[in-house]
Amino acid sequence: MPNSFGKLFTVTTWGESHGGAVGVVVDGCPPRLPLEAAEIQAELDRRRPGQSDLVTPRQEEDKVEILSGLFEGRTTGAPLLMLVRNADARPGAYDEMKEKFRPSHADYTYQAKYGIRDHRGGGRSSARETIGRVAAGAVAKKILRLAGGVEIRAFVTRLHDIEAPRPDHFPTLEEIEASPVRCPHAATAARMIERIKAVRAEGDSVGGLIECRVRAVPPGLGEPVFDRLEADLAKAMLSLPATKGFEIGSGFAGTLLKGSAHNDPFEIREGRVRTQTNHSGGVQGGISNGEEICFRVAFKPTATILQPQKTVDVAGHAAELQGRGRHDPCVLPRAVPIVEAMAALVLVDHWMRQGAQNQTFKF
Amino acid sequence: MPNSFGKLFTVTTWGESHGGAVGVVVDGCPPRLPLEAAEIQAELDRRRPGQSDLVTPRQEEDKVEILSGLFEGRTTGAPLLMLVRNADARPGAYDEMKEKFRPSHADYTYQAKYGIRDHRGGGRSSARETIGRVAAGAVAKKILRLAGGVEIRAFVTRLHDIEAPRPDHFPTLEEIEASPVRCPHAATAARMIERIKAVRAEGDSVGGLIECRVRAVPPGLGEPVFDRLEADLAKAMLSLPATKGFEIGSGFAGTLLKGSAHNDPFEIREGRVRTQTNHSGGVQGGISNGEEICFRVAFKPTATILQPQKTVDVAGHAAELQGRGRHDPCVLPRAVPIVEAMAALVLVDHWMRQGAQNQTFKF
Amino acid sequence: MPNSFGKLFTVTTWGESHGGAVGVVVDGCPPRLPLEAAEIQAELDRRRPGQSDLVTPRQEEDKVEILSGLFEGRTTGAPLLMLVRNADARPGAYDEMKEKFRPSHADYTYQAKYGIRDHRGGGRSSARETIGRVAAGAVAKKILRLAGGVEIRAFVTRLHDIEAPRPDHFPTLEEIEASPVRCPHAATAARMIERIKAVRAEGDSVGGLIECRVRAVPPGLGEPVFDRLEADLAKAMLSLPATKGFEIGSGFAGTLLKGSAHNDPFEIREGRVRTQTNHSGGVQGGISNGEEICFRVAFKPTATILQPQKTVDVAGHAAELQGRGRHDPCVLPRAVPIVEAMAALVLVDHWMRQGAQNQTFKF
Amino acid sequence: MPNSFGKLFTVTTWGESHGGAVGVVVDGCPPRLPLEAAEIQAELDRRRPGQSDLVTPRQEEDKVEILSGLFEGRTTGAPLLMLVRNADARPGAYDEMKEKFRPSHADYTYQAKYGIRDHRGGGRSSARETIGRVAAGAVAKKILRLAGGVEIRAFVTRLHDIEAPRPDHFPTLEEIEASPVRCPHAATAARMIERIKAVRAEGDSVGGLIECRVRAVPPGLGEPVFDRLEADLAKAMLSLPATKGFEIGSGFAGTLLKGSAHNDPFEIREGRVRTQTNHSGGVQGGISNGEEICFRVAFKPTATILQPQKTVDVAGHAAELQGRGRHDPCVLPRAVPIVEAMAALVLVDHWMRQGAQNQTFKF
């Protein structure tokens, strides 16, 4: 099931950029969860096109409809079907894509894999697919918040070569949303915005890093051997369009430390087992240790640029592609809620798996 | 199934460091594959303790037994059960671990998750678990080689801060195996060996980066949306002990490029669609594009060190742990075949999934 | 994923009887399959309410919309989302069900399981859920027909105690659809219709047996050990509302034969290995042997009856329930296309699994 | 994963009749379960060959070894590997099977599916495969007993045409084990034994029905839509060698009742919601209702008989097969513990799924 994610809280996304709608089925949602469409909508609004002058002006209201699984304001345990109609579809704008493969997009590989391709706006490979993820993630976030006070916070920590200082506290949602670039450090955010505008003016694009932190995760989530928490987080993040890397805790930089400096000594603090440092990033042996979970995701520069590019056409001839139309010069601001959504999907699934294993049996 | 990996070529590992044996079941192996125990053994010998003076001197022959699934030298389509007996078990050597949580190991998290813990040598969290992965990976590698001439080659590219120059060709197995540190650049390998010996003398440890390249993968492997090839590779790598990061193609460094420099232009070369550069790392939109797949994995410094460390005991008191005994001051040399094995498991699974979808039906 | 079925051709149904819509996601559908909504609609029309005077007069057009996965008349390999709006919802008609558990329905067990229940028309437990199965099954049937000329034919073989003679040929669709009761033996069909009208007049209900035959299945479909073809068929059938039993080939009656009479001798016929008899029902050791697959499913009498019944209310008091409203006095006529759909889902999934395993590798 | 069963309590069996060993991996077993090899052995002894003069005299001690997952007498949450060595292998006795397909066995279908076949004693299709199921089932039974006092009791209710009267109480293990035929009604058991001896003298075989009852299952186990409790039970039973049918509650006979007689009225009894009758067999809408679960399984007569049979050989020529050697003239006595094991696997899996969904979250 290539379009499904999660073993117990299973989400299946469907829909193409310029088809009738995009959406998601959430199977395995616990019953009796209070839920309103407005809560889903709030998260979708954070990834919506046209939300600021930094992102694509494609006009999409992205209004969610919940067609099943809710009854009198609560989930019933039955699958939730959530969908968003595609409104601002301009199929004609994509005629060139029918004949030519866009560099560093999925056009060629989809053609090679399937022998057929819905070229309109990238079809299934469009980032509009992530609407379903964000909708499902909104449900997951609510469960985690109600069940354990878990908070998930992603933000832009580096854009191109502009890096924000490491936050000295768990960033608040307000700090992050204060700027359209979603970097909680105001001065850096301002520089990032300038950079986005500058590359847009060049018809070019930039990438960067998103950091995500999660607090109040209890010890014990994650499964050895293959379904380690960091393994599932890595998969979740690398399943997002435009991602090229993932690191947790000390990450790549940690490989420059010796073990004596890298190990996290244990101590008793606040009445429970804690670590003094957190190079582990909240996970040890694949299982949460109760510390803050902290990971970073690398997003490449947007593949769509408004400059002429060399490519080939479907007949196998050399061709030139002249990018035009609406696009995001940088995906990071809109990717922030998507990263949070995926983290929530991983965590709620492991929360349920732990519930299956440990809370049912009192041996 | 936390101990299983793969949807069609499914491996399930089992066993603890100091239990009776460790091993693996491979379910879904195609029938009629010629296979001998010696081929499995050759890969196990590459991860075996005691293979050089750089690694733990634990004396384990790690001799594989194949108990099912083979008949007259060929697989039958039935599950393969492969096991390795634990020989050099010294349970007494681990008595201290019974009472104290080793920093940056899985002792505390296993205890928190399960309420019980086989402390002997780390039990299930021991890297001996990877024996099953390597055995299954040897089968996967052979399938890929016979089916499509696919070659998978991992090597140490950076150890601590000692980095090898980027290879100008696809490294040969001989180049890699020429040095016990498994870096194909001989001069750098010599420096790496000195570093390992130096930190070992200090009772300390180091980490680094392993790079893995795969060639001859046909276009079309990998599934949108969640089971992208890079997503499954990321999960596979982050499921390995001691890993903290994964990047594919341009990876983290690629985020410093603009889109105009990062995009891989298409051209016709050797009669087929090729890219001029390979920032994508052989995967676009989650699907292989026929170029070399190239990714890197960050391994932290070994958590076991021979220096005193602060920790807490199971009763919740502050304690000091004095590491001793046999250990690897650096896991990278022995991790090379493990990385290859995991890459092979991902690829053979996607190969079979593509077979299911595309080759059965002629519409 | 309780609402999903199939490992490679995976269908997930969603929706409640009186919610916004019911539908299905089909994930794993092979690309390039020619497909039109009209083909889906034709199957839905066979299970539609109001299609004859034997079934519930609930007025539902059950018109299918395909929102994703199709492009220019062909599947793309992306998920198909198909939905049917609920039109003739009369929530008020079900107020009594809010307070009282209907005997032999799912009201009590859903309440016990979830602690919440969408009581309107049975909510998720309504047979309207099977709309998604029939829509997905229509796709599966087409694949099987195009790929291998496979034909699936179900029909009513016994209604209450009225049993049709064993057909002497593979029944045609025309023979089955000639009567609203879907029994291909015209004289028996007439008697069945009388029986349904008689029990309806009593406010009562009846059940019976549906037989299903499948021809042109190649040898080799089905997997040992747990995913035997008959095991998956049994699960598929027992997952349908109102089913109480399944038998394949000689079934329960075969237990009265001795082995010497029951065994199916092999012979060479039409140039290939055939059996002289077919007590095996087309499956041996869990794998198709190329003979006609033949199984039967027992459906209990409809639980909804228009007579007063003893029950309890949600507060735990004894109560009486007076059935009223629209219902089917016998589910069998409308269940025929549903049985076919489920058989198609099982077979196409195993067809794909066999493709994964056997056709990709040429050892 | 054709050799795996269960979503959360996942068992994977492996091994062939005349290979090195047969066994099972149990992944997902809850931690801290007290467990000893003797408990597994007790169940294996009930399915062992040579246990009475009614069954095959193949001499197999079937002694279980537990190689992983246990620590100081308790499960750790890690996978359990249990194996049984094959002792009395007489490969030469099966040379005829190499060349000729045994009627109503899996010889031909395995050859057709895989293009290779371990013919020795049926290889993977041998009923020795069920050793792994019984071992895993013993663990499942213990969990269910400790967690909820659940008792599972299977017995032979009809052998050939000899039917036992319906028991007026939940049969005790002692009553069932009192006779080697495992029918709790002593007088009927004696007649069954005579029948088995008579058909064995003819070189023939017989089948029959096994009934299974389960008590103390709490309301709420089972999942809509596809993973209904009866659907998973049906799959479990039809996955056993030699089974041809499954029915639950009123089963096939219930189709002869009208709805007014078949419905199970609710009442309050013993302080909770109960049904007055149990035509539902303990399951409504796919979910347990707290009543006794009751189902029956049809086993065909053993395919191996000691009479000459017509068949074809692997070269496609007509041939005659002269059965000889050791076999069971009736599989039912030894199938009783296997049916119980499969029922336990289904129930423990659904118990864990319910734990995941309902007990983790307090909305």
Describe the SSE topology:
The structure is a homotetramer of 363-residue chains.
Chain A: E1 4-5, E2 10-15, E3 21-27, H1 37-47, E4 64-68, E5 70-71, E6 74-75, E7 80-85, H2 95-99, H3 107-114, H4 130-148, E8 151-159, E9 162-163, H5 173-177, H6 186-201, E10 208-215, H7 229-238, E11 243-248, H8 259-262, E12 266-269, E13 272-275, E14 283-284, E15 287-288, E16 293-299, E17 308-312, E18 318-322, H9 332-359
Antiparallel strand pairs in A: 1-2, 2-3, 3-7, 4-7, 5-6, 8-9, 8-10, 10-16, 11-16, 12-13, 14-15, 17-18
Helix pairs in contact in A: 1-4, 1-9, 4-9, 7-9
Summarize the entry for a quick read.
Four copies of one chain form a homotetramer. With 363 residues, the first copy, chain A, is of the alpha+beta class.
